[in-house]
Amino acid sequence: MSEAATTGSGTPRPRRSIGRAAAILIGGFALFAWLAGGGPPSPDPTLPPVSSAPTPRSAAEGEQATGLLSQIISAAGLGVVLTGPDVRPPLPIDLYDLPRIVVRGASALDPSGMPLVAILCTDAGSAAMAAERIAASLATPGNLVLVPPDARFTVRRSGSTVIIFQRTPSGDPDPAAADLLEATLNAFGEAVPIPR
């Protein structure tokens, strides 16, 4: 075998120039990788997922709302689940900035749990106004497009907290547990009627 290779035009080229081109190409990739941060990407941190919900104004406010929702769920005989994705009920746009807490009621048939959402207002008066606006919003045709056709809502107010429970009978993994949670919630706080 000879020491030369041929190019596309038939002229001989020494094998050393092919090796040099490969070394330059590999070196260029290595330099690019080093400049771009080098090495494989670092592993994802093992922190809990960040919620898109506005956070409570204080730790005490968050603990109080979590305690209230947990009390309702426990009274229904369900397991309390404090983790899971954020829940964004169809609210009036200007109320999306209010802090919210989500706690889920889990059963054997629904281990991820049904969410109760607490909207945290600054005082009982603002909660009463927000609750009425939320209830009216839940009956608006524009907002109803965002939920399944058979979705139904329960809205209750307790002090400065508005509690929302949405269930969809056709999609409930555990209808009996959803019925129980809804009935238990109806025994807490004040009812906020949803216009029909």
Q: What are the key terms here?
A:
6-stranded antiparallel sheet, alpha+beta, 2 domains
Biggest sheet details? 6 strands, antiparallel
Helix content: 25-40%
Structural class category:
alpha+beta
How far the N terminus sits from the C terminus, by CA atoms, comes to 90 Å
Number of discrete helical segments = 5
Mean pLDDT: 80
Q: Structurally, how many domains make up the residues? A: 2
Tell me the strand percentage band. Answer: 15-25%
Layout: helices, strands, pairs:
Layout: E1 4-6, E2 12-14, H1 15-35, H2 59-75, E3 79-81, E4 100-106, E5 114-120, H3 124-138, H4 141-144, E6 152-158, E7 161-167, H5 175-185, E8 190-191
Antiparallel strand pairs: 1-2, 3-4, 4-5, 5-7, 6-7, 6-8
Short description:
The chain is 35% helix and 20% strand. The chain is built from 5 helices and 8 strands, in the order ββααβββααββαβ. A hairpin with a 5-residue loop joins strand 1 and strand 2.
Structure characterization notes:
The chain is an alpha+beta fold and 196 residues long. It folds into two domains: 4-35; 59-191, no CATH class. Helices cover 35% and strands 20% of the residues. The protein has five helices and eight strands. The strands form two sheets. Strands 3-4-5-7-6-8 form a six-stranded antiparallel beta sheet. The radius of gyration is 29 Å and the shape is elongated. The relative contact order is 0.13.
